[in-house]
Design brief:
Blueprint lengths: L17 H7 L26 H6 L12 H14 L3 E5 L2 H12 L5 E5 L4 H13 L3 E5 L15 E7 L11 H10 L3 E5 L4 H4 L9 E5 L13 E5 L1 H14 L5 H33 L4 E5 L9 H7 L6 E6 L4 H10 L3 E2 L9 E6 L16 E5 L5 H20 L1
Parallel strand pairs: 2-3, 2-4, 4-5, 5-6, 10-11
Antiparallel strand pairs: 1-7, 6-7, 8-9, 9-12, 11-12
The structure holds pyridoxal-5'-phosphate.
Length: about 400
């Protein structure tokens, strides 16, 4: 089916604004007896009317792994939202990263990956891709157009992630894409932080855009999903890789993601404001050396963020002044409104300690003191700040000890 038209060939003559796309895209109520949301279709076997139809697979849906009305609803909506040629849905964000890489790499290829990349991406490159004969070079995420000097004759793809989800280093995606395309390489991007609402990856030169739907698309920390959207150049290979692997997402997770989709923009706009309010408050604290948040004017990545992005999500980090790790841990352990856990994008706030130094290989990560990543949820900002204030009071006694 043509993912751009939703199959019925109807298409609005005017391009719709993202807020409207989020509400309308991928819904066909009268194909569902008038019900507003596409229900959960569960199924492996699809029945055909006769042997001729079966042998030709002459049916709208052919088998559970290939797609159902539920999965198609989200594929169509995401394709429209991202301006892609097509989208595949897979069981997790990491599966989206792996299937995107598998769709464009073969034995003997060379891959460029930013040193700030989501750590499980690095693990996939070092384990599976290495075993399948693909060599990875990690690069300084801030290289921009200078990435050109790292290209080898067999460099087939450049992976990007902006900003990195621990250190928030901002990449110059258009410059990297121009350098890659000049050498006919494919550009991939993990766009989970901004989502398509705050960064139009394909419009900025990305061929394969990845989103961990587990995060802001879910908005509720209760599902796992990955989405890969591809432009015309990469769509056929992506879909063929999906068909060959059948890494298909579960119908209930897709259904929940569709619910998340309709309210994603409202949540993100709210979380952007709350995140910035907390980040600005933290930046004024005497215990804080630096806030790593590209939407803050003081951030080294701010100019690129302002040029290319239309918003910021609510995930950022702080670098504390030199102090014992135990003081930072006491701070986090005191917080009552911030959960301690991986992942993010839900309605609830989170705070975790992290240290990238042990696994960076292209560049050194040398923070001034302990580092903490925050995710700001939908709670009241005043309540969150009061909680952080209590944490800092405990940090002071732990530092003095
Ligand atoms: C969480 C995350 C992923 C992976 O998503 P999962 O669904 O947890 O596998 C990928 N990239 C980034 C930047 C993430 O934060």
């Amino acid at each position: 089916m043509d993912q751009k038209t939703g199959g019925d060939g109807k298409r609005d003559p005017e391009p719709l604004e993202p807020a409207t796309v989020l509400v309308t895209a991928g819904r066909d109520p009268f194909a569902q007896h008038g019900f507003v949301n596409t229900p959960i279709y569960r199924g492996s076997t699809v029945l055909y009317r006769n042997t001729q139809d079966f042998l030709k697979r002459a049916a709208r849906y052919t088998y559970g792994t290939k797609g159902t009305p539920t999965t198609e609803s989200l594929e169509i909506a995401w394709t429209e939202l991202t301006g892609a040629a097509g989208t595949v849905l897979v069981p997790s964000g990491l599966a989206a990263i792996s299937i995107a890489l598998m769709s464009c790499l073969r034995a003997g290829d060379h891959l460029l990956v930013p040193d700030s990349v989501y750590r499980p991406t690095r693990n996939f490159c070092e384990s599976i891709l290495k075993r399948f004969g693909v060599e990875t070079t990690y690069y300084d995420p801030l290289l921009g157009a200078d990435i050109a000097r790292l290209f080898k004759p067999n460099t087939r793809a450049v992976f990007t992630e902006a900003p990195g989800s621990l250190t928030f280093e901002m990449q110059d995606i258009p410059a990297i894409a121009a350098a890659a395309h000049a050498r006919d390489a494919i550009v991939l991007m993990d766009n989970t932080w901004a989502t398509p609402l705050f960064f139009s990856a394909h419009a900025h030169g990305v061929d394969l855009a990845i989103d961990a739907g587990t995060k802001y698309l879910s908005g509720s920390s209760d599902l796992l999903l990955g989405l890969v959207s591809a432009n015309e150049r990469c769509w056929r290979e992506l879909r063929a890789t999906f068909d060959a692997t059948a890494f298909c997402a579960g119908p209930e997770d897709v259904f929940l993601a569709l619910r998340g989709l309709r309210s994603m923009r409202v949540r993100l706009l709210h979380q952007q404001e709350s995140g910035l309010a907390v980040a600005r408050w933290l930046a004024e604290r005497p215990e804080v050396a630096r806030v790593l948040h590209p939407a803050l004017e003081s951030d080294p990545g701010h100019a690129i963020w302002k040029r290319d992005f239309t918003g910021a999500s609510s995930l950022f980090s702080v670098m504390l002044k030199p102090m014992p790790d135990a003081a930072a841990h006491a701070f986090i352990n005191t917080l009552t409104l911030f959960g301690i856990g991986a992942s993010w994008g839900g309605f609830e706030s989170l705070a975790i300690p992290f240290d990238c130094a042990p696994f960076r290989t292209a560049t050194a990560w040398k923070p001034s003191g302990p580092t903490i990543r925050f995710h700001i949820g939908l709670e009241d900002v005043g309540d969150l700040i009061a909680d952080l204030e209590r944490g800092f009071a405990v940090m002071a006694t732990a530092t003095a000890r």
